[in-house]
């Protein structure tokens, strides 16, 4: 495959940006995203949620394009960031295109960039993943840029990225052997023992539960309404669809 010329690169950036901006305008008109004072995203769930008064209103499925550092003025592609593999795939597609067509900015993990560059990279990731727009989320050192792959009203979310575990995991250092992704948005992570009861259940944030056990990361792509079990931390997870 022939290298991509500068004019081709410029045309790709412009067309991807126009497409992304048009999609973002449609999202605003259809969902009124600016009216919601709160939003949060979680890479493990692969979701971005807009809320009002703590109540989720709109949910987006996302891909992480990359992050722009305000301090270092650098862009870092998602495949070079510590986020789960399922949400890196749009950025991986950009890297593969860059390797095929000789576009260094697409396959170099980190490079000097402006906010305009960041939006352009997010637009290209969005285009290659057949996304529905993009969104910028502030971080402690700049912002992360997300491509939106699906967008819908949040009619079945009780809380944003809620999770529950048991006192046996928190206080007795038992391993998590059962994980369920509930259809209402909750994640249940328990030891799976016969002594799990309502009185031993504790509510945490999803990030807190994930911090208890890094081996939960492979379940990031498990859909809502599914659960996974394992015999021990040394065994593989086995997934089942809840009936």
Would you write up a description of this structure?
By secondary structure, the chain is of the alpha+beta class. It folds into two domains: 6-153, no CATH class; 162-241, no CATH class. Helix content is 28%, strand content 32%. The protein contains six helices and 13 strands. The protein has helices at residues 6-31, 89-101, 104-107, 115-128, 167-171, 206-212; strands at 38-42, 47-52, 55-69, 74-77, 110-112, 134-139, 142-153, 162-166, 178-181, 187-190, 201-205, 226-229, 238-241. The strands form two sheets. Strands 1, 2, 3, 4, 5, 6 and 7 form a seven-stranded antiparallel sheet that branches. A six-stranded mixed sheet has the order 11-8-10-9-12-13. A hairpin with a 4-residue loop joins β1 and β2. The longest helix is centred in the first third of the chain and has 26 residues, at 6-31. The chain is globular, with a radius of gyration of 20 Å. The model has no long low-confidence stretch (mean pLDDT 93).
Fraction in beta strands: 25-35%
Tell me the series of helices and strands, N- to C-terminal: HEEEEHHEHEEEHEEEHEE
What is the mean predicted local confidence, pLDDT? 93
> How large is the radius of gyration?
20 Å
Q: Describe the sheet with the most strands.
A: 7 strands, antiparallel
How many angstroms does the end-to-end distance come to? 48 Å
The helix content, as a percent range, equals 25-40%
How many strands appear in the DSSP assignment? 13
Shape: globular
Work out the helix count: 6
Which class do the helix and strand fractions yield?
Answer: alpha+beta
Number of structural units classed as domains: 2
Query: Unreliable stretches, pLDDT < 50, 5 or more residues?
Result: none
């Amino acid at each position: 495959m022939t290298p991509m010329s500068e004019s081709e690169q410029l045309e790709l950036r412009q067309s991807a940006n126009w497409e992304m901006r048009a999609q973002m305008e449609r999202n605003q008109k259809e969902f009124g995203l600016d009216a919601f004072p709160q939003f949060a995203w979680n890479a493990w769930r692969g979701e971005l949620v807009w809320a009002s008064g703590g109540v989720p209103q709109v949910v987006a499925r996302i891909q992480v394009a990359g992050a722009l550092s305000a301090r270092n003025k650098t862009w870092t592609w998602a495949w070079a960031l510590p986020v789960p593999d399922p949400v890196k795939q749009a950025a991986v597609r950009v890297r593969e295109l860059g390797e095929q067509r000789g576009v260094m900015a697409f396959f170099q993990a980190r490079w000097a960039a402006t906010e305009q560059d960041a939006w352009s990279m997010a637009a290209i990731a969005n285009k290659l993943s057949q996304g529905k727009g993009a969104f910028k989320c502030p971080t402690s050192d700049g912002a992360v840029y997300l491509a939106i792959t699906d967008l819908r009203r949040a009619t079945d979310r009780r809380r944003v990225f809620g999770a529950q575990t048991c006192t046996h995991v928190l206080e007795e250092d038992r391993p998590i052997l059962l994980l369920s992704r509930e259809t209402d948005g909750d994640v249940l992570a328990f030891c799976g023992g016969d002594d799990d009861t309502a009185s031993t259940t504790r509510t945490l944030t999803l990030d807190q539960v994930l911090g208890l056990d890094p081996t939960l990361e492979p379940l990031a792509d498990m859909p809502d309404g599914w659960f996974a079990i394992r015999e021990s931390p040394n065994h593989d997870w086995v997934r089942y669809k809840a009936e």
